[in-house]
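Researcher: I'd like a candidate sequence for this fold, 188 residues long. If you have to choose between options at a position, lean toward the conservative one.
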């Protein structure tokens, strides 16, 4: 009977296999940020919901949905695929006035083709106005539908900038998002 020796090469191969398996089981996290200035004459779309606003809508090439843009960047960041501008550049006329939920759906499809699924998202909208709280339930439902996850895995919060800076002067609105993704089936 022969005895197997634990060689450095074999130990290295075992460690690489264990590391790959652990990496496949662990969620990956990304952070997204977006900011847009207010402009009169446009609707204020946030997380796919038309929010009544006394300060106007958001200026941008697409529908300027800062909350959804932040989620897209968080998802793309978690998958190490770049950012929203890489996939939907504001120099491309096909994205002029685009519905950001459509862009998010395309992002979810892309991640799915690469073997990723969304675990959860957390969004913070930063604005003095408009009031966000009355619309949070609809925003959560809308994002959950496009992300293809249960609504209890979508968090949306709102805060002010305590009247500091451009956001505090009501010049615009910003959103920050964090997203976690995992390999479908937990395989690398």
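Model: Candidate sequence:
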């Amino acid at each position: 009977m022969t005895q197997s020796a634990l060689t450095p090469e074999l130990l290295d191969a075992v460690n690489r296999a264990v590391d790959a398996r652990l990496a496949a089981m662990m969620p990956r996290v990304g952070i997204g940020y977006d900011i847009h200035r207010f402009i009169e004459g446009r609707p204020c779309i946030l997380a796919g919901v038309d929010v009544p606003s006394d300060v106007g809508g958001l200026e941008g090439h697409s529908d300027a949905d800062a909350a959804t843009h932040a989620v897209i960047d968080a998802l793309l960041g978690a998958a190490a695929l770049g950012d929203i501008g890489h996939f939907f550049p504001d120099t491309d006329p096909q994205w002029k006035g685009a519905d950001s939920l459509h862009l998010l759906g395309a992002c979810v499809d892309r991640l799915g083709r690469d073997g990723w699924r969304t675990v959860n998202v957390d969004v913070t909208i930063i604005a003095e106005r408009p009031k966000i709280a009355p619309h949070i339930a609809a925003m959560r439902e809308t994002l959950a539908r496009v992300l293809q996850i249960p609504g209890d895995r979508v968090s949306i919060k709102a805060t002010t900038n305590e009247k500091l800076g451009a956001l505090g002067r009501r010049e615009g609105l910003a959103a920050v998002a964090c997203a976690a993704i995992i390999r479908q089936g937990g395989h690398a």
